[in-house]
Amino acid sequence: MFELLLWPFIACTALAGIHAYLGMHVIERGVIFVDLALAQTASLGALFGFILGIELHTTGSYLFSLGFALVAAIFLSWARNTVKNIQQEVVIGILYVFAAAVSVLILSKAPSEAEHIKYMLVGNILFVKPEDVIKMVILYSAIGVFHYIFRDRFLAVSRRDNSGAVKVNAALWDFLFYATFGTVVTSSVEIAGVLLVFSYLIVPAACSIMFFETIKARLIVSWSLGTAGSVAGMALSVFFDLPIGASIVAIFGAIFALFLLANLYYNGNVERAKDAQ
Question: Mean pLDDT over all residues of the chain?
C-alpha cells in the first residue's frame, strides 16, 4: 500500500506547494475562478488536437493544451489592462463558458466523451506515473524559482500597487503571471483534475488569509494545510475505499468549514473585547 501511495503523495505535495503560492495571487487579484477558465481552455486545446488526429494524454495533446492556455493568458492579461468598465471575473466567466460550450460541441461528436469529462474533473492521481511526477516537480520548481526571484514585481502587479519602490510594467507582468499560471494548471489538471486543482489553489490560501497578515506566515500555513489535507484525504480513501481525488477535496472542504467557524469565534471575541472597552 505504501508503494502504491508514494508517488500520489509526492504529486499532492508538489501540487500543494505551487498552488498555495499561486492561490495568494489569485485571491489578491479577486479572480477566484481563473484556474477553472484556464483549465477548461487547456482541455479545449487537447480536444482540438484530438479532432486533428492527436491522441489525448500524449505529448502532442499536452502541447495543444499549453498553447491554448497561453493564448488565454494573453487574452486575460490584455483584458485586465484594457477593459475598464467591467470586473475581470466577468471576462473569466465568459471565457470559461465559451471554452466549455465548444468542448461540449466537440465531445458530442467524439467517442467516450463521458469518460473524458470525468477524467478532467477528478483526474487519476492514484495511478500517476513516476516519470510524470518527476516532470511536474521539475516544472513547478522552475516556475517557483522564477516567481521567487521576481516576487516583488508579481506581488505589486497582483495588488495593483505601482506607486512604491517597485515600478512594474503591469501588462508584461500580468502576462507572465497568467502564462506561468496557465502552464501550471495545464500540467496539474492532466494529473489531478479540475476539482482537486481548484481546492489546492483556493482552500489553503483562503484559510491562511483569515488569520495571518504576512506572506511568509500565510505560505507556511497554506503549505501545512495542503500537506495535511493530502494525507487525511489519502487515509480517508484507503480506509473507506473511496476515490482519492474526491476524498482530498472533501477533506479540504471540512478544513475550510473549521477555519470559518474559528474565524467567526475569533472575530466574535474581538468584537466583545472592543465593546467591553
Answer: 87
158 vs 271 pLDDT, higher one = 158
The total domain count for the chain is: 1
Q: Which amino acid is at 184?
A: V
Q: Tens of pLDDT along 59-82?
A: 898 899 999 999 999 999 888 888
Return the CATH number at 24: 1.10.3470.10
252 pLDDT more than 50: yes
Instruction: Give residue 142's domain range.
Output: 2-276
Between CA 19 and CA 25 the distance in angstroms is 10
- Cβ-contact 133, 10 below 8 angstroms: yes
Rounded distance between C-alpha atoms, residue 200 and residue 20, angstroms: 6
